[in-house]
Amino acid sequence: MANQDDQFKKVVSHAKEYGYVFQSSEIYDGLSAVYDYAQNGVELKKNIRDYWWKAMVQMHENIVGLDAAIFMHPTTWKASGHIDAFNDPLIDNKDSKKRYRADVLIEDYVGKLDAKIEKEVTKAQKRFGDAFDKEQFLATNPRVLGYKEKGEAILKRMGQSLENEDLADVKALIEELEIVCPLSGSKNWTDVKQFNLMFGTKLGASADTAMDLYLRPETAQGIFVNFLNVQKTGRMKIPFGIAQTGKAFRNEIVARQFIFRMREFEQMEMQFFVRPGTQKEWYEEWKQTRLKWHLSLGMGAENYRFHDHEKLAHYADAAADIEFKFPFGFKELEGIHSRTDFDLSSHEKYSGKKLQYFDPEINERYVPYVVETSIGLDRMFLAVFSNSLQEEALENGTTRTVLKLPAVLAPTKAAVLPLVKKDGLPEIARQIVDELKWDFNVDYDEKDAVGRRYRRQDAAGTPFCITVDHDTLKDQSVTIRYRDTMEQQRVKISELKEIIKKEVDVKNWLMKM
Ligand code: ATP
Predict the structure, then answer these.
(1) Can you state the subunit structure given in the record (predicted)?
(2) Does the annotation place 333 within a ligand binding site?
(3) Residue 60: which of 285, 253, 336, 337 has the closest Cα?
(4) Ranges of each domain in the chain
(5) Given this chain, do its domains 1-72+197-389 and 87-196 carry the same CATH topology?
(6) How large is the average pLDDT for residues 45-64?
(7) pLDDT band at 15 (very low <50, low <70, confident <90, very high)
C-alpha cells in the first residue's frame, strides 16, 4: 500500500512540476477537487479528446457530433430522474467527523478481499513455478473461492439494499463487516443518508422571477433532447449515434484521488440509438469496440478489465465498466450502459413531444433504445499519465524519470536542440522548428548540457529529440533520439517530418484497433 501511495504522490507532483495539472486557485490554497490543466496538460487532454472523437465520429459514418449547452431547461432533470434519484449514500464517522460514501467503504472492503486473492496467487506461483495454472488455481483453491464468494455476497446485498432504498441495511452491513474509519479507526458511524449530487444555480436577475437551474451532471441529456433534431436534419437511420464531449458537474461527497474524482470534469459520451430488442447485441458490440480503443494505445492489456454492475442505475437494463489499473488499484474508467428507452420516453412524457422514429425497414414507429458509452476525459488523462510515468534504472547505475506517453497523445512531439549556442547551430535548429511546427507541436531548447536537456524532455514526455551539431553544417544531417529506447540515429533534416509523422499519426495508432 505504501508503495502505491508513493507512486501516486509521484504522479501528482510530476503533473505539477512538468506543467500538466495545477490545483485550481492555488494562490488561495486551492478549491477542493477542482483542477486546472497547464500548458502541457491542455495539449494532452486535447489529444485524448481528438483520439476519441476521430475513433467515434470521423471513423463511423453513422455517428455525428453535438455540442449542447451546459444549462438545460430544469424539467430535463426531472425527466431524466436526476432530481429524484441522482443520490449517493453518505455516512459520517462521529469521531473523525469525516464523511464517506457508504458504498465506497463497502467496495473498498471487497477490494481488500481481492488483494488477498492476488496474494494467494503470487504465493502459489512461487510454490508451483512453471507448472502453475492460474485459471485452474482461481477456479479451485478453497481459500480463493471463499474470498470470492464473500466479496460477491457483500456486493449483492449492498446492491439490493441500495436498489430498495434500504439505507438501514447498508449501515447494518458496514457494522457487520466491522468497517472502521480509515482516519480515526473507529466504528462510531451515523446513519446512512441520501445526498443529491447536482449543483444548483439561478437564471435571471431578480430574486422572485429567477429560475432554478442545475449544472448538468452528465452530457447525455443534451443528446437525448436533441435526438429528433439531429435525426431529422441529418437524415439519420437507425442504428445511429450522437457523440459529445463537454463539462459535467457533480457535488461529489468524497472527492479525493486527484483528477480521478472531480467536482467539475469533462465527459466524452456517445448515445447509440437502436431498434428495441437489439440493445443486447449492441451493448456487447460497444463493450468490445471501446475496449479495443483503449488497447490501441498500447498501455498493457493486463491493466484493463470489465466489471459488470450489480446495482443498475435507474435507467439501465445492463451496465459494465471498463476498469483500469490506476496507482490505487483497479477503478472505473469508462461505463457502457444499455439505457433502454427510459430517457427518450421520459422526455416524451414531460415535454408532451413525440420522440419517435419511423423505421422504414419494418414499417413501424417506436421510441429507440439506447446504448451509451461514457468515459471521463480527466480519468483517461490520469490513466495515461500514471501509466506512462516510469523510473528506469540505467546501465551506468543512475535512474531516469521518463513519461512514456503514447506518442500520438504526447503534448510536444519533438524538441530541437542545438548542441552549442554558437557556430550557427541555433539558427539551423530554429529553421527546423519553423519547418516542423506546421505539422507538430515542437519545442526549442538550448539551455544546459545536451544530456540534461534529454532528461528534461524524457520527463516531460516528448517522444523525439533532434540534435543539431557541427556535422549538420556539412551534410544537413541531425541526430534523432527516441525517448523510450534512448536509441540515436543519424538522419537527414529532410527526412524528419516523415519519421515523426509515422510515429504520431492517429491513423497508425487507430489501425491497431
Ligand atoms: P463513479 O462510480 O466513479 O462515481 P459513475 O458510475 O457515477 O462513476 P458515470 O455516471 O457512469 O460514472 O459517468 C461516466 C464516466 O464519467 C465515468 O466512467 C468516469 O470516467 C467519469 N466520471 C464520473 N464522475 C466523475 C468525477 N467526479 N470526476 C471525474 N470523472 C468522472
Answers:
(1) Homodimer.
(2) yes
(3) 285
(4) 1-72+197-389, 87-196, 412-510
(5) no
(6) 98
(7) very high
Average pLDDT over residues 229-254: 95
C-beta of 101 in contact with ligand 1 (< 6 A): no
CA of 122 to the centre of ligand 1 (A): 32
Strand order, beta sheet including 442-444: 442-444, 414-418, 464-468, 477-482, 488-492
- Does residue 208 carry a pLDDT above 80? no
Please give the share of the chain, as a percent, with pLDDT higher than 90: 87
238: left (phi over 0), alpha (psi -120 to 50) or beta: beta
Nearest residue to 506 via CA among 22, 54, 181 = 54
Share of the chain above pLDDT 70, in %: 99
Is 448 a known ligand-binding residue?
no
Q: Which of 74-88, 309-323, 469-483 has the highest mean pLDDT?
A: 469-483
Q: Is the pTM above the cut of 0.90? A: no
The response to whether residue 374 sits with its C-beta less than 6 Å from ligand 1 reads: yes
What's the CA gap between 467 and 418, in Å, rounded? 6
Instruction: Name which of 269, 272, 288, 248 is nearest 375 in CA terms.
Output: 269
Mean pLDDT of 115-143: 92
Joined grid coordinates for residue 232: 431529422
Ligand 1 atom nearest the C-alpha of 261 is 28
Give the right CATH number for 87-196 from 3.30.40.230, 3.60.10.10, 3.30.9.10, 2.60.40.10: 3.30.40.230
Distance of alpha carbon 146 from alpha carbon 139, whole angstroms: 11
- Ligand 1 center–CA 376 separation, angstroms: 6
Q: Given the CA of residue 374, which atom of ligand 1 is nearest to it? A: 14
Confidence of residue 2 (pLDDT cuts 50, 70, 90): low
What is the C-alpha to C-alpha distance for residues 263 and 146, in angstroms, rounded to an integer?
38
Superfamily for domain range 412-510: Anticodon-binding domain (3.40.50.800)
Cβ–Cβ < 8 Å for 61, 241: no
Integer angstrom CA distances of residue 190 from 105, 115, 124, 243, 252: 14, 28, 41, 42, 19
CA of 419 to the centre of ligand 1 (A): 47
Q: What does the block give as the cell for 169?
A: 441495511
Domain at 1-72+197-389: CATH code: 3.30.930.10
Nine-digit cell string for 22:
495545477
Mean pLDDT of 16-32: 95
The pLDDT confidence band at residue 164, using thresholds 50, 70 and 90, is confident
The C-alpha atoms of residue 71 and residue 199 are separated, in whole angstroms, by: 11
- Least confident interval from 37-51, 230-244, 298-312: 298-312
Any ligand 1 atom below 6 A from CB of 336: no
Residue 88: CB within 6 Å of ligand 1? no
Q: Which residue, judged by its Cα, is nearest atom 12 of ligand 1? A: 335
